[in-house]
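Task: fold both queries, return tokens.
Query 1:
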Amino acid sequence: MDLVKYFEEHSGFGVLSTADEDGRVNAAVYARPHCFEDDTLGFIMPDRLTYSNLQSNPHAAYLFRQDAEVDGRRYDGLRLYLTKVGEDDDQDRIADLRRRSRGGAGQGRHLVIFRAEKQLPLLGAG
């Protein structure tokens, strides 16, 4: 699936799940990822638990639920299994990527970049 096209065409609700080095899980609400030309995805995140977990465990899962019904199903979307491949703390780049302007935009935030290892539908096959 072309993730750039998918996230351009669909709005919805996302949850990014991470775990620390001891396997303690965290889940947090995140907007659609930023999709880059090299087939990587990025999430802008503050220096909180999700970011901290990714410092010791590079694996994450992102669940995205589309806003609209598809083929009569109330729930459609996808699940992405991710591996962190880098991060960027360039605050100017982060400010340019932000979809919504908020107070202190870009300050103290990180752009964490992932490779999608696996894609599955929200419901069903897995």
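Query 1 returned. Query 2:
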Amino acid sequence: MAYKDNSVNYGFGQMGSIHAAGTETITCGVADGVFVAITFLEDTKFDSAVAGLVPQSSELFPSSDGTSNDIDADGGDVVDSEVFPKGVTIYGRWTGFKLSEGRVIAYVGY
């Protein structure tokens, strides 16, 4: 039997996905899993609270916690009140998020 290498699947969100349309807090329920891509099905805003967009590493990926200084020169909230338009996909590594409006599909990876 041939060995199946899942490394591409793990990195590119082919391990599952969820549809989120409400304002509840969403966390990746897979052990050691993260959301590796988020596709916007409608114009969408993340909640401006800390749980708005929670990165695996605050220094590397857009977040709502105000500590994304490696990618945001002024160290401000990268996604606070930002509208992500329908059809856009962002890539990164997030452990969870909370929408204030809109609909998304979030893809699971490791």
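Both queries returned. Flag for query 2: Residues 61 and 82 are 15 Å apart (CA to CA).
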